[in-house]
Design goal:
The complex is a heterodimer of chains A (about 450) and B (about 280). Chain A has 17 helices and nine strands. Chain A has about 450 residues and is an alpha/beta fold. In chain A, β2, α7 and β3 form a beta-alpha-beta unit. With about 280 residues, chain B is α+β, with helices and mostly antiparallel strands. The radius of gyration of chain B is 20 Å and the shape is globular. Classes of the chains: A alpha/beta (about 450), B alpha+beta (about 280).
């Protein structure tokens, strides 16, 4: 029977886990110490052998990405941490940075040494003010006590970290758009190749890693590859922070091994759906991942199983919705989000998201026409795989999946101009909780 | 444009990065720390500091939703309306605040207290519906408790957020977002740049002489919020001015606000997509 774990979230219940003294008292920096006794190339091999896959959405093998960095180009190597967590339904990095900022820093130092990198940036979404304050304090303490700066722990390794607040653009979570934003430009994605590992920040070799990915590095070095691979599945090893939101009893971040069935996370950690509501549709990893239905509730939450089911694990941001909620309302909300956030660089996405929003709004307003559904499909087909970056693919995912599984909801709206019986109109009924209510989290806390 | 103190900080920001242009986003936050929005003068000064054209700076300023085109009030109140908050009442919260305050998206109340906006996913879905005040999060707001919060904010009694500390104002927060750490000694956090050649010690807490939004507003000519360069100045009062008499910033829509307010349209007009710059290669498929 799969149980929750407390690897990344082990300090979440501590009052002082975000301070240096609290971090050290709870075993912090053991991974860094272990890595300093290894050759940098061996650290890289360990991360490769672990099979760690990126936690930012793409699931790309982290060791493989690090291995692409050439060391002989005569240009500095940069490490950029993608803390631009903007995928709807995703909030795992936020809590990690707030509650355990030193874990992020430790992962960065270990990674940087493996990459012969001496300068790094944390690209933090501007709205994440409190995580920023926590990181500011952690970085200052780290410098003061010699965990950052020159000759870390007498190892001869120098490493600097700069915290960089961004300014509000979802597309900057895309790594090449992020690099453009970090260079002081409009955040538009770049053509690849060249990939950031070869020419990234300032046209220099750059590794961009998600916050959770980099925070997973210390435990691999500290406890070993075999221990890490004992969690999860063969192709998706390790622990994962799953963020659950929507119509569940206890939304929150819950840490489980990859491959845990969705039902276990929702029922054991979240207390199931809200009273009187049955699961109808859900996204496994943020709004950019194709919707799944109640038939998929027992699916194993790992990269490959979800891909085989026609969706994506993405960020692991699980958004759960019930039979009282209209799929079309959800899809309209997300499509407007994508329309708003489109960077504008390429025509299919810029124009297509605009058209899709218009049509969906008409349908929701009761002015839909039968051929609208075919038009939606056609526009999606002209966007998916035909745009400059994966943003557009994410933008059409809700529409394509909802037409596949819930076509009758669209048809009802088109034919009758109103939602089906039993479905709440949009904006109806506030379903909230007291802010002080204790929310279950993974591991030690209940 | 920048006060002498902020000009020195601005130059420090440019020197913080291997390539100075990286300081542009922080500098635009610094402009907002002083002017409450991205002013024309601010754009000019950033262009000059970075040897860029005004058009390039403007292009960057108009891309990001945190940069505002009109002066913000003392506080920025943001309501998340993405779907995980929406399904738990986010739009209802926004509609109630909009109706009560009499302003729509990115608009400021006539008393200069509050600018309201709806926001895309703020990354706090476990606390849905979420309202932020100057980017500090207040979780699980109903329309009623959101109203309470806003009234307290309007009366200058900002309650402590779910996480963080009570904000003194959006301009102080923008100072931190510029990468300069806390504006006042009492605030936690430290200047987040430590990349110094010789010194691994943390910098001293950089508390300014107690500049608050009130002093900024008192010192700056109304309308463009900037110290007037000679000959520029008072004549440049634009429609963004905050004088109560002009009525600018307050639109007494009442219930009609929803007709003009299209919450999910792009907040700022996006210029047409740039022609291919560095990526001037055909997309291969």
């Amino acid at each position: 029977m799969v149980e929750p774990v407390a690897v990344l979230s082990k300090r979440y219940g501590l009052a002082d886990g975000h301070t240096l003294s609290g971090y050290l008292a709870s075993g912090g920096f053991a991974g860094l110490r272990a890595s300093l006794g290894m050759a940098p190339a061996d650290v890289l091999e360990a991360v490769k052998a672990s099979g760690l896959r990126g936690r930012g959405g793409a699931g790309f093998p982290t060791g493989l990405k690090w291995g692409f960095v050439p060391q002989d180009l005569g240009r500095p190597v940069y490490l950029v941490i993608n803390a631009d967590e903007g995928e709807p339904g995703t909030f795992k990095d936020r809590e990690l940075m707030e509650r355990d900022p030193f874990l992020v820093l430790e992962g960065m130092i270990i990674a940087a040494r493996a990459l012969s990198c001496h300068r790094s940036f944390i690209f933090l979404r501007g709205e994440y003010l409190w995580p920023g304050v926590r990181l500011e304090e952690a970085i200052a303490e780290a410098y003061a006590e010699g965990w950052l700066g020159k000759d870390i722990l007498g190892s001869g390794f120098d490493f600097d970290v700069t915290l960089h607040y961004a300014a509000g653009a979802y597309i900057c979570g895309e790594e090449t758009a992020l690099l453009d934003a970090l260079e002081g430009r409009r955040g538009q994605p770049r053509l690849r190749p060249p990939f950031p590992a070869v020419a990234g920040l300032y046209a220099s070799p750059t590794v961009v890693n998600n916050v959770e990915t980099i925070a997973t590095v210390p435990c691999i070095i500290e406890q070993g590859v075999d221990w890490f691979r004992s969690m999860g599945t063969e192709k998706s090893p390790g622990p994962k922070l799953f963020c659950v939101s929507g119509e569940v009893e206890r939304p929150g971040n819950y840490e489980w091994p990859l491959g845990t069935p969705a039902r276990a996370i929702i029922e054991k950690s979240c207390g199931g759906m809200l009273p009187g509501r049955n699961l109808k549709f859900w996204a496994p990893g943020g709004s950019s991942t194709p919707l799944l239905t109640a038939d998929h509730f027992d699916i194993a939450m790992d990269f490959d199983t979800i891909a085989e089911a026609g969706s994506l694990l993405g960020t692991g941001g699980m958004m759960m919705f019930s039979d009282r909620t209209s799929v079309v309302d959800a899809v309209l909300n997300w499509t407007k989000f994508y329309e708003h956030e489109s960077c504008g660089k390429c025509t299919p996405c810029r124009e297509g998201t605009f058209w899709l929003s218009q049509i969906l709004q008409r349908i929701v307003d009761g002015q839909g026409r039968t051929k609208d559904l075919q038009t939606l499909d056609d526009i999606c087909d002209n966007i998916f795989g035909r745009s400059f970056c994966a943003f557009a693919d994410g933008a059409v995912s809700p529409i394509k999946a909802s037409l596949k599984y819930f076509r009758e909801e669209y048809e009802h709206l088109v034919d009758h101009g109103v939602r089906q019986a039993g479905i709440d109109p949009a904006h109806a009924g506030v379903v909230t909780r007291n802010s002080g209510q204790d929310r279950s989290r993974a591991g030690a806390r209940t | 444009m920048f006060s002498a103190e902020l000009r020195e900080k601005a130059e420090g920001l440019v020197g913080r990065y291997p390539e100075g242009r990286s300081a542009l986003l922080p500098l635009l936050h610094l402009v907002q720390a002083q002017d409450g929005y991205v002013s024309d003068d601010g754009i000019k000064e950033c262009a000059q500091l970075l040897a860029l054209s005004k058009a390039e700076v403007m292009g960057v300023a108009t891309f990001y939703s945190m940069y505002k085109r009109a002066p913000m009030g003392r506080h920025l109140v943001s309501v998340c309306t993405n779907f995980s908050c929406e399904v738990r009442g986010g739009q209802a919260v926004y509609d109630r605040l909009s109706g009560h305050l009499g302003v729509g998206h990115n608009e400021t109340t006539a008393d200069g207290a509050i600018t309201l906006e709806h926001a895309e996913c703020l990354g706090n879905c476990e606390g849905a519906p979420v309202v932020t005040v100057d980017y500090f999060n207040y979780e699980c707001r109903t329309p009623d408790t959101a109203m309470e919060l806003v009234e307290q904010v309007r009366n200058g009694e900002v309650p402590p957020p779910t996480r963080g500390y009570a904000s003194a104002g959006i301009r102080d927060v923008e100072y931190r977002l510029a990468g300069l750490g806390p504006r006042h000694a009492a605030e936690p956090g430290v200047i987040p740049d430590q990349a110094t050649a010789d010194d691994a010690a943390p910098p001293t807490d950089d508390a300014g002489p107690g500049v608050t939004w009130k002093t900024v507003m008192a010192e700056a000519p109304r309308g463009n919020g900037a110290e007037a360069p000679e000959g520029g100045g008072a004549e440049e009062r634009g429609p963004e001015g905050l004088e109560p008499e002009s009525g600018a910033g307050e639109h007494d829509y009442g219930g009609a606000s929803r007709q003009r307010d299209e919450p999910t349209q792009p907040t700022q007009p996006r210029p047409p997509a740039e022609p291919a710059g560095n990526d001037d290669q055909p997309v291969e498929r």
